[in-house]
Amino acid sequence: MSNSIRALSMDAVQKANSGHPGMPMGMADVSTILFKYFLKFNPKNPSWINRDRFVLSAGHGSMLLYSLLYLTGYKSIKLNDIKNFRQIDSICAGHPEYIQNSGIETTTGPLGQGISNAVGFALAEEILKKKIGKDIINHKTYVVAGDGCLMEGISHEAMSLAGHLKLKNLIMLFDNNSISIDGPTSLAVSDNFNKRFESYGWDYIEINGHSENEIFKALKKVQDAKKPTVISCKTKIGYGSPNKSGKASSHGSPLGAEEIELVRKELGWNYKPFQIPKNILKNWRKIGKKGEKSESKWNKIYSKKKNKINKFFKNDFLKLFVNEKKKALKDARSLASRKSSEAVISSLVKKSTKIIGGSADLAGSNNTKTNYHKIIAPGNFDGNYIHYGVREHAMCGIMNGLALHSKFIPYGGTFLIFSDYCKPAIRLAAMMKQQVIYIMTHDSIGLGEDGPTHQPIEQLSGLRSIPNLNVFRPADRLETIECWEHALKSFKTPCIISLTRQNLNPIRNKYSKINKCSFGAYEVLRTNKKVKLTILASGSEVNLAIETSHKLAKDKIYSKVISVPCMELFDLQSNRYKDKILNETKLKVSIEAGSSNCWKKYVGDFGMTFGIDVFGKSAPYKDIYKFFGLISSNITYKIKKLIKN
C-alpha cells in the first residue's frame, strides 16, 4: 500500500517533468499507517465537520496528498488528474491548492504556513468542542512538516502559541529526512529538535519512519496526549531509489526513467506507470468506506444537536448596522476610526458567537478587545478572543485555519506597518477565498512620534495589489461601520480595515440605508453644480480634501470631493458609475498620506497626486503633515498653479 503512493508520486512527477518525488516516497509508510488505523475521514463527505484534519505543510510533496485522496476514494481526484499533475486546470497542482469539499484542507507551499493553519484548525476544534459538546466535536489535526517548514520563523511563532494553549489535539508528523534543496540540512541547521519542541510545551517522540511497528505505537500513544506532540519520523527521502534515496537529487526533480525502473525492481513493484493493482486499491478503498460508517454513527448524535450547531453559527448580526449608523449620527463627535471600529466590535460580539477576535499584543492600540470578550486561555477554550502575542506571522496563518475549519469569522489586529509580516498569510487567504478580517491601525504618518519605522508608506499600495483582497480605509465613524458591514458580507474575500490613531471629523450627517462604502468611491461634497476639479481621497485625508475644496471655492474654483474607502470595490463598479465619479472633470487630484502610485490610474496624465513617496519622520503628527505638504494651504496653492498652467 505504501509503495502505491511511491509509484504514483514518481510516475506523476516524471510525466510532468517537474515536481518533488522524494518527500512522498519518504513519508509513504507514515501516511499509510495514519490513514489505515487512525485518521477519521469520509471520502463521500469531505466536509464532515468532525473529520480529522490532514494538513500537508510541506506542500512541495503534494503528490503524497493527491495519491492518498485518490487511493482512499475521494471523487475530487481521478487517476487522470494525477496523470495531469502540474498541468493547467488539474486539481493536482504543484503545491496543494484549497478547493472546498475536495479533501484538500488548505493551500500550502510557502513553508511553515501549513503549521500555522494546523494550529488554527486545532484551536477551532477546541473552541467548538467546548461550546457545542465533545460528543459532537472530538477530532484531531495532523500536520506533515519538513525540515524547511521548521526552519521558517512562522513555525516558531505558531508552535510556541500552540504549546502555550495546550492544544492536545494537534499532532505534527515531522518528516525528519535531513535533506534540503542545497543538500544535507547540516549545511544550515544544527538545532536540538527535542529541546526546541519541549521548550514550546510539546511532547516529542522519535521513531523510524519506515518501521510499521514504531509508527503505529507513536500514533496510538498520541491519541490520549495531554499536550501537542511532534512525532519525529526519521525517513529516507526518495525511499526505494537505489541511487538517489537520502540525497538532495530526489528532492525537487524527476528521478529519471532509468532510475524509476531501478526503483520498481528495488520495491518489487512490477506494474506499469500509474497502474495500481486491484487488490491494493481495494484495501485502500476499504479505509475510505470505514469513514462512512464513522460518520453514520456520529450522525445519530448530531441529529439531536443540529439546531444547537445552526444556532451557534447563525448569521443574524448584519441587522445591527442600521442601529450603529443611527448612533453614529447622533454622536457626531470627532473620533479616531480605531475607536469607531471598537464600537462596532462591541455590538458584534454581543450578537454573534461565530466571530473570534484577537491581536498581536496590541489590543489596547488596535481597539480589538472589548468588555464583552472572553479570553481563550491555556486549556480553557470557552472564549472568543485570542492573545496572539507578538506573532503577526502566526496570527494570520492561524486565522486562515480558523476560517477554513468551519464557519468562524476570525479578525486580528496589528499596526498597518506590520502587514509586511502578515502578507504571506493574507495572500493565501485571498487565494483560498476565505472570510478573514484584518484590523490594521496606525495607518499613516498620523501616528506621529513613533517615526518612520512605524509609519506605513508603501503598505497600502502593496496590499491593494493583491488579487481578491478588499483594502478599506474609512474616513469617519459612519464609513468605519459600513466597511465592517461589507467585510461581514464578503464571504469569499478577505478584508483589511485600515484605521487611524488620530481623531477624524464626521464627513456625513444624513442617514442612508445604502452602504455607500460598498461602491468603493462616492461623492461627499460639491461646492457648485458645475465643477472643474475632482478631489479623490481616502481615510483621514478626506477631511483634508473637504477643507481644500472649501478654500478653493472662495476663489471660485469649484470642485467635488470623492471619498475612496476601497479601490477594489470601486474598480468593480459599472463603467457608467466610474465615469460619473471620474470623468465629470478633466482635472483630478488625489490626497493620501502614503505612496501615490496606486492613485495615478485615477488622476490620469493631467492630474496631480499628493502623497508620500519617501519614509516618514518622527514628530507630532500635525508637524509631519505640514512637513510633507499635506495641508490645505499647500495643496490649494499647487492646485491653483496647476489650473493656471
Number of strands: 20
Strand line-up in the sheet with most strands: 10-9-11-12-14-13
Query: What is the CATH domain class of the largest domain?
Result: Alpha Beta
Query: Low-confidence parts lasting 5 or more residues at pLDDT below 50?
Result: none
Could you name the CATH topology of the largest domain?
A: Rossmann fold
Summarize, please.
With about 650 residues, the protein is α/β, with parallel strands linked by helices.
What does this entry look like structurally?
It is a single chain. Helix 19 links the parallel strand 13 (470-472) and strand 14. With 645 residues, this protein is of the alpha/beta class. It has 3 domains: 2-297, Thiamin diphosphate (ThDP)-binding fold, Pyr/PP domains (Rossmann fold, 3-Layer(aba) Sandwich); 317-504, Rossmann fold (3-Layer(aba) Sandwich); 516-644, Rossmann fold (3-Layer(aba) Sandwich). The N and C termini lie far apart (78 Å). The longest helix is centred in the middle third of the chain and has 35 residues, at 278-312. It has 25 helices and 20 strands. The strands form 5 sheets. The protein has a 6-stranded parallel beta sheet, with helices on both faces. The radius of gyration is 27 Å and the shape is elongated. Helix 8 crosses helix 16.
